[in-house]
């Protein structure tokens, strides 16, 4: 039996102490117990984690300037950090001073010669910041002030700012020596609904909503197409380094392609068990950031017919006894990997000679009181790992060994845990060496939420989904449950944490590969049809509905749902389950109206049930 949890909360042995110092300088890591024995090194090493210090963290895309890192905050502009010595990470600016204008940033780009940071978002104005002091950027002025401006991605190519503007296409603007911009020009050589663009100084790659890549070269007067590549998967991110592009495609994995004068050549396609939201390259290192964790691949360690070796894995969320994050962006900086995880920014050391020393674990599980509790875990690496689970009394209730790449479901009998609403089970992962040693590598927790029968709100698996109404995309009143299998996805159109899930679920559903043939139903308080959201994101073929829009929801809907007009918060949000953001809480509902699963961690094609 382990020591009491109150004592264990102060644990940490990671070649040093678990420290979050004053002045927001964080180093070392909570929860990870790195083996000291020779030959057993983790490929991704927790060095520092900064929790966002203000209310409402919505951290997304990264941009860098030397040792400085900027993280877009869709709730309030951006956050600035600096890489310190010995793996430290320092918060230099939680957010720029308020100007009385709400500034939303979902994408950032830096022009180093003029020391300018550009910020834009999926709606409204775009802004420029002065980096004379890169630790504390100052607002210069809006460079575009247009309520109809919708920007998915910004990128700097030499002295040109690229703007991926959804169905309006790819645009560029010349950057003056002081950072001011010329008039935006359409890039005719990259047509379509453009979601992303990246450059490496020699080439530009643009990606559309259909994951079609176009290689572009600047001729001195315009961009010219130099080849195309059609990929299969939702378009979530791309990065371009040394004439190689890494493309994050959600449940379809990550494609690495080499650029040539005539086009692209795919050289690697990896399939980490996650929804890949971001990817980056640094020599032979490929980092894959996913909603549920971060993977490191050694591209030099691959047979002709095999994927490269997974050299490291770290779960998402805070380093400690919870898993509550949504990792959205990652970039290599000075040999380390910086990751944006919605409410946290991580600095991870990289060792391609390493291996995976922890399991991919759920953060929480929802079940009916008095019944078995089932959950799964996955070993994403090639080492053999053992998981031991203790209940709140410190009694071991599970001990399972996971071989390389193995996923196993485990069950807890009602008598092995307390029958209360919320409790934490304590998880201990051990590396089993060929010499027969069991080396502790990670301490974690699993939150178990049990629901008693009775009442319509927040049904658990095995219970009936309550009858509610909504207005669909054609303004017709519909009712749930319906006579088909649905994954009901409650969302808000401005929630950047939901964008990867919505695109990924739609892509899987089109291939009849979402949750055993389920179809996604996007339910929102607002009527997203009024704002052009479906066309912008390429989900016009997905079922959609609204239930509380002041302009278009029929009175019949709100009257029927009363007194729970706020369906998500009143009836379906299971706040006790861990999640990075206020969304999601997804319900997988059978054609018979029975809840099959309730999840606040979207894992796409790789659920842990």
Task: Record the SSE blueprint.
Elements: H1 5-8, E1 19-20, E2 25-27, E3 44-51, E4 59-65, E5 68-73, E6 78-83, E7 89-93, E8 107-111, E9 116-120, E10 126-130, E11 138-144, E12 153-157, E13 160-164, E14 170-174, E15 185-186, E16 194-199, E17 204-208, E18 212-218, E19 223-230, E20 237-241, E21 244-248, E22 254-260, E23 263-270, E24 276-282, E25 285-290, E26 293-298, E27 309-315, E28 329-333, E29 336-340, E30 344-350, E31 364-368, E32 373-378, E33 384-390, E34 396-402, E35 407-412, E36 422-432, E37 438-451, E38 468-472, E39 477-480, E40 486-490, H2 499-510, E41 519-524, H3 533-537, E42 543-546, H4 555-561, H5 567-572, E43 586-589, E44 595-599
Parallel strand pairs: 31-37, 40-41, 41-42
Antiparallel strand pairs: 1-2, 2-7, 3-30, 4-5, 5-6, 6-7, 8-9, 9-10, 10-11, 12-13, 13-14, 14-15, 16-17, 17-18, 18-19, 20-21, 21-22, 22-23, 24-25, 25-26, 26-27, 28-29, 29-30, 32-35, 33-34, 33-36, 36-37, 38-39, 38-42, 40-43, 43-44
